[in-house]
Amino acid sequence: MDKSKNQKVKFIIGLTLVGIIFIMMIAGIFCTPYDPLAMDMSAKFAGVSFKHIMGCDNFGRDIFSRVLVGVRETMFVSATVVFIGTFVGIIIGTVTGYFGGWVDEILMRINDAVLAFPSVLLALLVIGVLGGGTHSLIIALGIAFVPSFARIVRGEVLRIRNLDYIQCVRLYGASHLRIIVVHILPNLRTVLLSSVLIGFNNAVLAEAGMNYLGMGTQPPNPSLGLMLSEAQSVIFTNPWNAIFPGFVIVMMILGFSLLSDAMENKS
Amino acid sequence: MKAFKKLWRLIILSATLTVALCACGGDKAGDASKHITIGIPQDLSDSLDPHEALAAGTREILFNIYEGLVKPDSNGDLKPAVADEYSVSEDGLTYTFHLRKGVKFHNGKDVTADDVLYSIKRNADPDSTLANASAFSNVKEYKADGENIVITLNKKDGDFLQTMTIAIVPEGVDNLSTQPCGTGPYKFVSRSPQENIILKRFADYWGEKAYIEDVTLKICANADSITMDLLGGSVDFFARITASQALQLKDSNFNIEEGTMNLVQAMYLNNAVEPFNNEKVRQALCYAVDPKEIIDFAFDGKGTELGSSMFPAFGKYFVKEINDVYTPDIEKAKELLKEAGYENGFSFAIKVPSNYQPHIDTAQVIVEQLKKIGVNAEIKLVEWDSWLSDVYVGRDFEATVVGVDASTMTAKAMLERFTSDSSKNFVNFKSDAYDAAFNNAINATDDATATEYYKECEWILAREAANVYIQDLAEMVAINNKYTGYEFYPIYVLDIAKIKPAK
Questions:
Q1: Chain B residues within 8 A of A247 when measuring between CB atoms
Q2: Do B357 and A233 touch (CB under 8 A)?
Q3: pLDDT, tens digit, for every residue of B287-302?
Q4: pLDDT top residue among A119 and B317
Q5: Are A254 and A20 a contacting pair, CB within 8 Å?
Q6: CB-closest option in B19, B226, B367 to A220
Q7: Sign of dihedral through CA atoms A251, A257, A259, A262?
Q8: Does residue B484 sit in helix, strand or coil?
Q9: Under a CB-based contact definition with an 8 Å cutoff, are residues B154 and B141 in contact?
Q10: Closest Cα partner for B319 from B459, B449, B461, B448?
């Protein structure tokens, strides 16, 4: 099998998985078969059936509906976290990489310090200060995600700013801002794309992990990590409570990493 | 094929991660007669000093380490402990306790009359800020007379003997809050914060010695993983498991024993904040919340509905009819909200301690029930430590779902909490009628009158809807079949000394 065919297979599988996840997310936004919060005494621990395709949990809530909303929640949090990470990362990365000097020294040392902290521990710390909830979770994970992006961007900017064409524009008298925005940033595109996809994967895992620890989404609202956590006590008698949310997390991660893999090699 | 290898690796990696998220194991337990691991839902982080400890979870453990002159047995009756006998004078004002011979503290010293006087003084001192100080306000004089302790009261008090369950501590030991030293069947060895507390059988105990030598109290703060801990063998005993957890343990090597928890589970409302400072709003919530549905949903129908701050184990003080003050009625609830000016409902947060699954489950059902009257409640899980400091001590909350018990088996201990100026009145309930009734009760000269007034207090709590009362939880205890002998108490204690290895 030649390499390009491999890439194609990866790309197609990745795209399919991500496509399914997106469809689930859209369904989660607009319509779910049941109200994900509605409790139904008669459906307590109902098994997998046509009525409830993923069964029901201990309050008789439809797991499929909860998974759909959970996917929406996870996608929203992960996307926002990656956006914060990238946005702040780009600002810090370009400023430090382009100007260098003491700004670089100070910001990057702070960056290193944050990076040296385990990201989950850092997020726990932030949540400890802000209190639980989705918003704190986004801020906490956002902060934890900034350093890695800042580092990648800085490396690229360092490389680009010494290229001949930048020297050339500088001789023409272009301002710093113009050089950064018009001539450097567009060239970060390829590097950023793959790191955003990888970062997104990490964000999904981190979100699930934090919710599993009960730090993010508050019950009764569903999130994939929280559902796993709640299902833990019934895992032997009602395994579908844990299997489906877990399966969807696996699908998400797999889809996005295949996609980023394929794209990285392509470029 | 390289790509597929990579793909498989990814699949396996993500699958492992999911499984890893799902399971947290623990180490296996050892020989049954020597050692038992007991899971407890929270660390004993308030204080290990028996006179300072506030949390019921702390007191239930200290019960094994400390004893009073008298102590309750599993029927709730008071039995002589550090004192071997006591007598009450004809007029009911003078109590004489005779010290038991050969009672030793865990540090090896004999218990003397001075220790007893010191223990009383710590609480009875007029400047004392300890939680039990008010119970001692009726004490006029206490002195030692040879081996007798003589206590004189200002006025007759039928519940006074309960007060003497107060722990006897050694005089001159000043690090009691970290290094407890009592006379109970178990002595304290060590505490690792957020991890465990280790107890050892006290070989010089005066009474029937404990059966099991070493006890590890393991802190299992994650409510979801308790069944995993039990089935995985890292915990042998867990009190207060939920119905669904009990279901998980069916057909395992655990026996489930059933009793009642003897506490008042309610959605406690901060009566001092908007909109709960409005009686009508509180009543509306009482009409909207259906305890029966909660019990059916979250507790498999096991539990006793309550209508006020009193539970059946209290016997003569418990009034069953109070539960009928509010029958679930959505229309009535909406009407009351309208009268209160909240026609379009309102939003509030319920703070729930994240380590108590029964309360989290209850809160989830309440959220659904309140939606029907347009009230939007949001659950906020808080750690037990922050619950204690923010909600209980700081009174910074709108509503919370917890269980409240009585420190001693007296109506006074249960109901004093709701008097306007009580330091334990974390719900900020203020009612002149209540204060008056409570005062009449504690000043009553005969028991029947006192009981009547206490009952009136309960009716007032219900009518003025101090809180949304739910139930006395059914207590289900999971005990590994290597052990037996667990006894339920009408108060919130965990008597480890009675647990023994099964033959």
A1: 18
A2: yes
A3: 999 999 999 888 888 8
A4: B317
A5: no
A6: B367
A7: negative
A8: strand
A9: no
A10: B459
Tokens encoding B337 = 């909200």
Q: Nearest residue on chain B to A35, judged by CA atoms?
A: B368
CB atoms within 10 A of CB B184: 28
Q: Are B237 and B37 in contact (CB under 8 A)?
A: yes
**With b meaning 16 or more CB within 10 Å and e meaning fewer, what string describes A100-131?**
eeeebeebbeebeebbeeebbebbbebbeeee
Tokens matching residue B393: 């001590």
Give the residue from A154, A234, A224, A252 showing the smallest Cα distance to B14. A252
Please identify which residue in the block is written with the tokens 């999971």.
B478
B180-219: pLDDT as tens digits? 999 999 999 999 988 999 999 999 999 889 999 999 999 9
Q: Of the candidates B171, B169, B200, B166, which has an alpha carbon nearest to the alpha carbon of residue B185?
A: B200
CA nearest B105: which of B14, B171, B190, B39? B171
Distances (CA, A) of B474 to A74, B246, B291, B362, B488: 37, 12, 13, 13, 11
B224 vs A209: CB contact, 8 Å cut-off? Answer: no
Residue A20 belongs to what H/E stretch?
helix A3-30
Written as six digits, the tokens of A115 are 């990076």
pLDDT in tens, B10-60: 566 566 655 555 444 344 445 677 899 999 988 888 889 999 888 888 988
Find the length of chain A.
Answer: 267
Whether the pTM exceeds 0.80: the reply is no
The C-alpha atoms of residue B353 and residue B387 are separated, in whole angstroms, by 6
Question: Does residue B211 contact residue B501 with C-beta atoms inside 8 Å?
Answer: yes
Q: How many CB atoms lie within 10 A of CB B391?
A: 23
3-state per-residue secondary structure call for B14-66: HHHHHHHHHCCCCCCCCCCCCEEEEEECCCCCCCCCCCCCCCHHHHHHHCCCC
Smallest Cβ–Cβ distance between B378 and the set A208, A218, A230 belongs to A218
Which pair of structure tokens corresponds to residue B53?
Answer: 């400890």
What CA–CA distance (Å, rounded) separates B462 from B469?
A: 8
Summarize pLDDT for B101-149 with one digit per residue, the tens: 989 999 999 999 999 999 999 888 888 778 777 778 888 889 898 889 9
- Number of Cα atoms under 13 Å in the Cβ half of residue B386: 17
In the numeric block, the tokens 């002149």 are attached to B432
Q: Are B356 and B263 in contact (CB under 8 A)?
A: no
Distance CA A134, CA A244 (A): 22
Q: How far is CA B303 from the centre of its chain?
A: 16
Contact B21 A228 (CB under 8 A): yes
